[in-house]
Amino acid sequence: MGKRFCVRCGREEGPNTPIIDGLCPACFIKERRMLELPTKIRVTICPICGALYIHGDWVRIGKNVEDVIEYFINKTIVKRHNIYPGLDDVKAKVVGVESGMVYLRVTAHYKNVSLSQDVATHVELHKKPCPLCLHSRSGSYEAMLQIRTIAPVRFDVMRDIGNRLARVREFRESIVEIKEHKDGVDVKLSNQAITRYVANILKREYAAKITMTWENTGYLGGKRRSKLTISARLPGLVSGDIIEYEGEPAEVTKLKKGGVIIKRLSDGKVVTLRHDDIWKSGFKYLNEKDYAVLDGRILNYEGGKAVVQATDSGNIYFIKSPRILNLGSRVKILIYKGKAYLLI
Ligand SMILES: [Zn+2]
Ligand SMILES: [Zn+2]
């Protein structure tokens, strides 16, 4: 193949001067647009917190309006159909925003050569308070959701619940305030219907017990107003937890949508507890103060019971065993209310 030359300035093709559509890089950026921009970019920003409205959602990029516009352009305009064919790694950087114009430096790669082009277009900033700022500024809320757990509050459990509820857009947009404390989380919301809706999710998926109370807060425009408080009590268990159920200790083996699977320590029976099982008969979360766990070893089986020796004390326990293990097997002994159980 013969050498190619720039049709505009005559420069010969070389490793640092590839010919792009008949032009050398320098002429290419003078003659062509690396990125097609609309004549006007409309960006909706919350004037209070600087959140950006994009793809139907409010996102918080930072306080700096340049950063917000840059994020918006890269997410919505830097798309294959707006990019000159053959260019890779196209990025737009905002170098200035002034009197309704946004000035951009567009960078890209063509083969191994970096290209950069300065462009400008009109920008219109539409200012609209985001739901969060709207509510917190007015300070008004219509409903309070109190999330509590029977087991101690655990970060992973709460994060999982938070992620689940955050998938409900109307919930996110109705939040006025979130307060985390050692017993759980209080969420103030501007919308009672959505509060009832998410309480129902907590009941269905996390076996929460829901209690609703209304408090009259006077009249507004002749209509009686009341605030709704929903208390959602969740088991909040994780696998490995020990609970007392129907008077006997049991180990939580698995969590299930809307329930908990436990293994009774006395006979190894696996029981699935659904919402009503949990709340009608109740359960007690046991912590390390309620029971002791010892290391032990199976010595023998006698009369249907395992003969187990505790490693530290040398004490011998006769324990009803849900299944037969090899002699010499190491096991954990759980002592609860003076009775010994095997954790196997
Ligand atoms: Zn040229
Ligand atoms: Zn805002």
Short note summarizing the structure:
The chain has 344 residues and is an alpha+beta fold.
How would you characterize this protein structure?
The N and C termini lie far apart (75 Å). With 344 residues, this protein is of the alpha+beta class. The protein folds into 4 domains: 33-127, no CATH class; 131-231; 242-281, no CATH class; 291-342, OB fold (Dihydrolipoamide Acetyltransferase, E2P) (Beta Barrel). The protein has helices at residues 25-31, 65-76, 131-138, 155-166, 169-174, 192-206, 275-281; strands spanning 40-45, 52-54, 57-59, 88-98, 101-110, 113-127, 143-149, 175-181, 184-189, 209-220, 223-234, 242-245, 248-256, 259-264, 270-274, 283-286, 291-302, 305-310, 316-320, 330-336, 339-342. The model has no long low-confidence stretch (mean pLDDT 91). The protein has 7 helices and 21 strands. The longest helix has 15 residues, at 192-206. Bound molecules: zinc ion (ZN) (2 copies). One zinc ion binds next to α3.
- Overall SS class: alpha+beta
Average predicted confidence as pLDDT: 91
* Secondary structure: helix percent: 10-25%
Quickly count the domains.
4
**Order of neighbouring strands in the sheet with most strands:** 3-2-1-6-5-4
Q: Report the uncertain regions.
A: none
Tell me the span between the first and last alpha carbons. 75 Å
Bound molecules: zinc ion
Major sheet summary line:
6 strands, mixed
What proportion strand?
Answer: 35-45%
Number of helices: 7
Q: Radius of gyration, Cα only, in angstroms?
A: 32 Å
Helix/strand order, N-terminal first:
HEEEHEEEHEHHEEHEEEEEEHEEEEEE
- Annotation, overall tally of beta strands: 21
Q: What would you call the shape?
A: elongated
